[in-house]
Design brief:
This protein is of the alpha/beta class and 387 residues long. It is 37% helix and 15% strand. It is globular.
Length: 387
């Protein structure tokens, strides 16, 4: 039973989170979600143990829902109708690890190529997989430097190639062109190759853009990973990885204990995550998702114009939610929780962001200060908390 002190801690924590959530422009997390209808499922130990497409001895699961989610994204990413497989992950980083792991099993002597703008988790994944790698230069936009990639590939054309394509880099949301990467591999006669697309944020909505970026299976990707909590929105991190089934079949192993196949990274998997994605897809539908994209692009264009209007050199890549500008002072960074790197910061105009929030942010930058923000009220100690 919770004591008064315990309840006080929970209350203070909730107040802090609610306050911090109000001013939140620097990270790609959509907040316009409502999953109260799923609350009854919190009564059960949902575990999608093993392969989503293989029945398990453990039946308290949502694997049928998970399969619907996988089918939806297979269509969105133009996978071959009879040659795809995937599962709902804990987030984009796990999806990247799975894609690289599968590539390594197919080509154990391969060299991995990724750009300097690649998410930090990829370097960690490469270290875990104990694979050799080469970092490729980037263009000013943040996209991979195709000339440097081609020149570097020539030096190692005797090795199979595993290429990590960024479908939206962390700081500038630049997209690498998968079709062009595929062409460069062909021109250099590297026949044994594998392209994994890290689509953490941008991959979730790129299929709704016009012109459509080159990123999916028809364009040349062998696997794609996205984060579900970013564009779609969720109360906790989750994601999805989609691969070619014939590649996955080469590494699958049966496990009698669970009555399923060991084809995922973690084995036990959160059964709520597929429900979250399924609910979001059903709630919005394809047209609703397209409308969310259009709204975000409109707000991002507005933010870029307004920042430049007050003399701030802001810019963004074509058809992206992310607006980049010189890093402001510490108080503004803290209030708006801005991600910053090498003198640059950004705001990400997720579907919940509106023009009035942009106006307030621009006012803060114009004044060179922020409105008075009450200090965090969450203080933990042996005696409980102070509110």
């Amino acid at each position: 039973m919770l004591t008064v002190s315990d309840e006080c801690i929970l209350h203070a924590l909730l107040e802090k989170i609610a306050h911090k959530s109000n001013n939140f422009l620097g990270f790609p997390v959509a907040k316009d979600f409502d999953y109260l209808q799923l609350m009854p499922f919190l009564q059960y130990p949902l575990n999608n143990l093993g392969d989503p497409f293989v029945d398990s001895t453990y039946g308290v699961d949502t694997r049928e829902i998970e399969k619907e989610v996988i089918h939806f994204f297979a269509g969105l990413f133009r996978a071959e109708p009879d040659n795809y497989w995937g599962y709902v992950t804990n987030g984009g980083s796990e999806g990247n690890l799975y894609g690289l792991y599968l590539a390594r099993e197919l080509y154990p002597k391969a060299m991995i190529y990724y750009s300097a703008a690649t998410h930090y988790s990829v370097q960690k994944n490469i270290h875990l997989l104990n694979m050799p790698s080469i970092v490729i230069k980037t263009q000013p936009s943040g996209a991979i430097d195709y000339s440097d990639f081609s020149a570097t590939l020539k030096l190692n054309r005797h090795l199979p190639a595993i290429v990590l394509a960024n479908i939206g880099t962390t700081m500038t949301e630049a997209r690498d062109n998968v079709g062009l990467l595929k062409q460069i591999l062909k021109e250099n006669a590297v026949q044994q190759h594998y392209i994994h697309a890290d689509g953490a944020l941008s991959g979730g909505y790129s299929a709704f853009l016009d012109p459509r970026p080159s990123f999916d299976f028809q364009d040349g990707s062998d696997s794609i990973a996205i984060s579900g909590h970013k564009f779609f929105g969720a109360p906790f991190p989750l994601g999805l990885v989609l691969v070619k089934k014939n590649n996955r079949d080469r590494i699958a192993k049966a496990v009698s204990y669970i009555g399923s196949s060991d084809t995922t990274i973690t084995g036990s998997r959160n059964g709520l995550s597929p429900l979250i994605l399924w609910y979001s897809i059903k709630r919005w539908g394809k047209q609703g998702l397209k409308n969310r994209v259009d709204h975000s692009l409109e707000v991002a264009a507005y933010a870029e114009i307004e920042l430049n209007r007050i003399g701030i050199e802001a810019w963004r890549n074509p058809n992206s939610f992310t607006v980049v500008f010189p890093t402001p002072d510490k108080a503004i960074k803290q209030k708006w929780q801005l991600a910053s790197e090498e003198g640059l910061s950004h705001i990400i105009c997720m579907p919940n962001v509106n023009k009035s929030q942009i106006d307030e942010f621009v006012r803060d930058l114009k004044m060179g200060c922020v409105s008075q923000v009450p200090p965090d009220s969450f203080v933990m100690g042996r005696g409980g908390c102070i509110v």
